[in-house]
Fold these 3 entries.
Entry 1:
Amino acid sequence: MTLPTHARAAAAVAVGLVLASTTTTVALAAVAAPGAAPGTLPAAAPAAVAPAAPADPGTTDRLIVKYRGQTPGSTPGATVQTVRGNRIEDAAAPYGAGAEHVRDTTQGAQVWSLGKDLAVTDVQAIAAQVAADPTVEYAEPDRLLQPLAAAPDDTRWADQWDLKTTAVGLDVLTAWDTTRGAGVNVAVIDTGYRPHADVAANIVGGYDLISDTTVSNDGNGRDTDASDPGDWTTTNQCASGWTATNSSWHGTHVAGTIAAVTGNGLGVAGIAPAAKVVPVRVLGRCGGYTSDIADAMVWASGGTVSGVPANANPARVLNLSLGGSGTCDTTSQNAITAARANGAVVVVAAGNSNTNVSGSSPANCSGVVAVAAYGPTGARAYYSNYGTLVDLAAPGGDTSGGSSNGILSTLNTGTTTPGSDTYAYYQGTSMATPHVAAVAALMISANPSLTPDQVETLLKSSAQPFVATCTSCGAGMLDAATAVAAAVGGTTPTPTPTPTPTTPAGTIVESEANNSRATADPATRPSTFTGTIGSSSDTDYVSVPVPAGATLTVTLTAGVSTADYDLYLYNSSGTRIATSTYGAGQVDTVTYTNSGTASATYYARVLYYSGATGTTGTYTLAIS
């Protein structure tokens, strides 16, 4: 009955490539595996189970009733059973239903047929009336549950630790029960793409925006061909002391993480497999110019770039798995601001220098979602940048423990010019970034009205607590399932209101604009807060300041016994720190002690699971 809180466990590693930054180029944000040979490929993994389509679980024709004193295997007398049936019929009659005993359960409850399919909410109402009988211990709908998304049949799914329902995985299977990203374009601003068989069907449009022919390595400047000719280099080609490198096929790897075709019995699964990738080529030999990258952000988001045809496939999400050292330059910041004004979320790699992200651009620009990387244990990867400008962390791999601890995705066998399709493990914040970009696409697909600010806020507020040391890695670990659930309940932020006290005794009434942490209703300790769950997508936040050393206790009581609401507690960074998810008719309580040396603000969140909404969807929070 709770939102899925997935475990997060596994490994990450890769064979990657990094280009050193110069004063005129922007480097790729991937990092080579220590001691790994470029081109090392993993062995094929066995096929997994084919996916099943979810069905609508919103009706049932049965009721479960547990009578006090009835033990498993005992049989009530005929008179008692007749009375029970009559009472259920009385409760069901307003809904045109009846009552017929079906069987007893192994736990001593009875299953009753109502004779017709009813909405689960109607059966809950019948159950509430039946449960009012003092001889009844409990009554509840006999719900029809449905198969959730199973693991796809992509042959390398078993190797994609980063997507699993584990302590360090994203839980994409649960997210896919809501959406797979249909209707959303994600721009991969990178080296271009190869038409890999496992991702080509999800490539749409694109453009080569490299203006310098030396960097482009394709014999010309800007054109409509965003395919990747290779970015190999020779010794000293890019700078004195430069080491020769093979082609990275970096953009193809990133694109596969986002939207590899899923359920096709081939290779890997993409995180947003129904989304489309718009490849925008800006990186070539030695990297790419800031001016080209800035134009790419504007063009990809639907803006106008002189001399370039309009983008027929504007992107709602921009993936920039690239970066260089230095402060945020004006050119990049202006482009980011323009892209956001066009409605695009800009997701940027924090960088691979194991240093503060404040010195890495464009991750240090305003308005971006800056992404750090964690490895197989959930701890910050040895290479990942960190700092207060990081928004959250995602799987990027840490190959110090073996190459299979990287991020597996689509690649090409060519060491210089293109070869054949393959797959390879890479590591880097370059690999973490498309995880976030793809989840952002899932969120927007589920709720197209979300703004870039809302997506960023919900990504952070839905992130899971770190399971290992990841200091200065942002709000937490990316979680696809909870992010999508949050997006479905997200609304447009409005200025923080001032709740109206209804009595001098400290009772506070919900403002109805408190659907995010940014617009949480303020409350004090002690106080009583009353609110309403207006619909199944509604969620309410209340902020409470807590002095150093003090303990906060929040108790949630629904207004009607058939309502099932869940209670969550977050810290000021948006990390979830406590949860209570009991069933209908039960009281939820969370407790947390501020062990810091200064006062801190915590956020209680009430989230709908099932039952009453609207005028009957009331609840009370006792805050102490």
Entry 2:
Amino acid sequence: MAFFVSHSTDFEEAQPSRYFGLFNANGSASTRVLAVELDIAKAEDVLDINDNHVGIDVNSPVSVQSANASYYSDNEVQKIDMKLVSGDPIQVWVDYEGTTLNVSIAPLENHKPSQPLLSSTSINLTEIVQGRRMFVGFSGSTGSGVVNQYVLGWSFSKSMASLQKIDVSKLPKAPHPSSKNNYTSVLFDVLLGLLAFLVLGLLFGAYMYRGNLYAEVKEEWENVYGPLRYPYKSLYKATKGFSRSEFLGKGGFGEVYKGTLPKNIELREVAVKKVSHEGEEGLKQFVADLDGYLFNHDKPTLPWWRRFAILKDISLALNYLHTEADQVVIHRDIKASNVMLDAEFNGRLGDFGMSRLYERGADPTTTAAVGAVGYMAPELTTLGASTVTDVYAFGVFLLEVTCGRRPVELGVPVEKRSAQMEFSSEEVERVLKVGLLCANLAPDARPSMEQVVQYLNGNVLMPEFWPYSPGIGALTPTLFSPEQLSLKSLSMSSSLSNNSMFITHTINYGSGR
């Protein structure tokens, strides 16, 4: 920092980060300045002698005279060095008379030294000020460094006689930060911050751990399947946190645990399978939509032998619901998009959201006409759902899987109207015939699911029927020659009339495979 005298307060051309904020690299062009600097940085460009000196500057940061910071001790009769950055308060005397400028420094409690540190006899203050007015003050700059500079008190006068002596006892105490204390304080702050961060991390980890205990993994297929969904938290509690004491066994896709649900839930004791997600695809490894394999052209075409096996799987599932379960279960939504495939492409009947149960020997109480367009039996709106309406939907499902065509299609290109694959003529003919029998327009003419299973397995002969048999094929008679008896192709279309859905089957006979 520096004490200065100037003829003006215009320091716009001075460099704020260097040269005490009074000069620039070229000196002082617009403002004439006399400065006494206490410099703690060595600048080679202004010829500083060291980084701890006192200098006299006239219109330039290059000192006309400078000396290492020190004072003359009358008691010791020698000069004693001082460290300007020590933090200890010092006293500075600047005396000017005639053309002589003396500068002295000493510790705050010392008297003024008898010998000045700097003495210049060529300072003409009149040339510097050039007027009746002058300005005195303090200025400083530290560049990129950080330094605390304090002026605790000062006294100025045009004559030595009227200069007031500074009463050191009345000066405020200068802050004297210790580097050790600063280091300790910073270290304490850092440790405190780390401790707070650690505590917050532990709390967040505990929160996430507790959340993960009850976290649910929901996959895309669940948007379509899974009519009843228990919260994972309920299943976690029901199995006592999947305790080993409740462990029942291990299957191909995970472990099975015994669970006890709350009393307000009708089904109290359940088996809960905890599906393993170690595989790359998670639950997608367990299920996929049959509908996607039939109609998504980005997936490989299912070969006929897989289709035939899937049809048998679903026939067994539906037969179980109709004849073997404790109560009769009417699924009411048989269709390809409700059939799931496991990793081995075994068929699994899903989505029981619209299913209904009733005791054996009793009439089903449901009359609501629900289901998917194209799979709904024509009597559904008048007689309601029953096992035979499920059989009708299963018949449409048989035809759909075999032909690779949806029951209702609009604007299908010619090249996509048939599935190109190798197949067994005998098996395909059998499945198509079973599908037509199940989709008979007359409910009483449809087979039971027990019969359907037998037909598909080839254990019993199917009844003979023709395109013009009641409830089979086209609604208008069609005549065919005796030579056209081998089945070639089948297509389906739908028509809606009088709020009832009818599936019209057209069978083309002719020479072929």
Entry 3:
Amino acid sequence: MVRLASYAILFSGIATSWAAGIPARRAMVVHDQRELPAYFTSAGAPSSDTPINLKIALTASDRDGLEQTLWDVSTPGSALYGQHLSFEEAKTFAAPSTASVSAVTEWLNENGITDITTSGAFGEWLGFSTTISSANSLFDADFQQFTEINGPTQLTRTLAYSLPADLQQHINLVHPATDFVRKINAGPKFRAFKSTNNTARALTAPASCNTIVTPTCLQDLYGIPKTPATEASNKLGVSGFIDQWPQTADLKSFLKALRPDISSTTTFSLTTLDGGSDPQSAEDAGIEADLDTQYTVGVATGVPVVFFSVGEDNEDGDLDGFLDIMNTINAETAPPNVLTTSYGFNENELTTASANQLCDAYMTAGTRGVSILFASGDGGVSGSQSESCTTFVPTFPSGCQFLTSVGATQDVAETAASFSAGGFSNFFTQPSYQTAAVATYLTALGTTNSGKFTPTGRAYPDVSAQGVDVEIFFGGEEGTVDGTSCASPIFTSVIALINDQLVAAGQKSLMQSIIAHTDTAHLFFSLYANPGALFDITTGDNPGCNTNGFPAKAGWDPVTGLGTPNFASLLAAALAA
């Protein structure tokens, strides 16, 4: 009798809803869930009427077609090689379908959400404001407040959320929901000079380059030309976050002291988003921003450099900034040919859905002809920064297969910098372009560190460059810095100068990745099959997690990748392709 009475009440309630014109609640399925990361603790439930801003990422119309296009335009020998997509062409793949937009909008409207904004380069994000109570009901979630242990990050997150079963095909993820991204740090430390030992190398440089690395050292070590670039259409982009602002006065001092052969008035242009800016006073100087602009303007001689200053007027801080800078670049008619970023996260701070969303934005940029380079991180095998761990911590976005990850070396003889982050992704599988090189390394490695990493994951870094005792000017002072933050703009400058010569020769600039398929006889895009195009680094390791990390070995290794740039060999391979 009790069960029958309950059913009667239930059916009565449904009938009342239908009579009132309110649709019945849709069947829900869990879309994403995770455990609370060890570096966060719960700070309790927020008030039910606390406002929360959320965004829904809609699926692309033809994501698989977009990836295939990337490989087609990136692989020499392909009928589509070099035929980068325009914004409108990329949109046909990356934009959500009308059906997806309509279906998700209808569901939100059913639940009283009508003030919906559209964002993203292709309208792939639907944003709205609601309350904690409504968000919990809408997504079968339990939004709580969380605080980083011994850190500054405070987040409102849920450990799981659900979506209507009939809408899962239309939705990639809800954001911010299950990501626990910590605030990224302010970059490398600025300090006085120090000394190291000198040894020999194929392309050598003065012994002073063991103590202080300058643009001249890099030109000597890597054969980087001093002659100015000539092609104004070939631009180099620099990512800027967390109020790190480059100073034109510091750049001028840098050029006067270290590149007196070019005008000290040479500078960068500025693009701002999310409330970004670039105030010009000594106290506003950012070490990372000064480093990145000085080693692009000062090494990629004559290449136009644009600094993307990302402010904090976004929904969720650092991760949203990464998404927004790619939305900006992907929406440009003439995006930069190459972009360097010296920031990142630990992979385990994100969910696979968020990581895929951002990784696909880099893939889209590749179809537009943009090469994406990232510093691999400074924690060895313990992640973006050195910290306690028992298994190796991959970094992100380095684990994304659609970009080039850059590790660090030191000294004239070039050995691996001990902080150079490298390893294997737990999210992304190993792409075909690197399987042979990685298999060789793993065979040589044997059982060392067995069980501490995923050997079938996307391996990184791909390449490396100098990252210790790099001289910069900061806030009017002269000093040095360390980090893969140094290596990424240096390697990016090499790519930009090669792009310049390709464009001048009437060829296409290098697109997305210097590490594409190895099933082609052409070089450069087959660097994993042509390690002679770089200087192989075979000494050093990257300790962490109470281990010595990975050792550098002949060929590719998860400390220095394939090695450091040999400009003449890279250019010859690019021209041959």
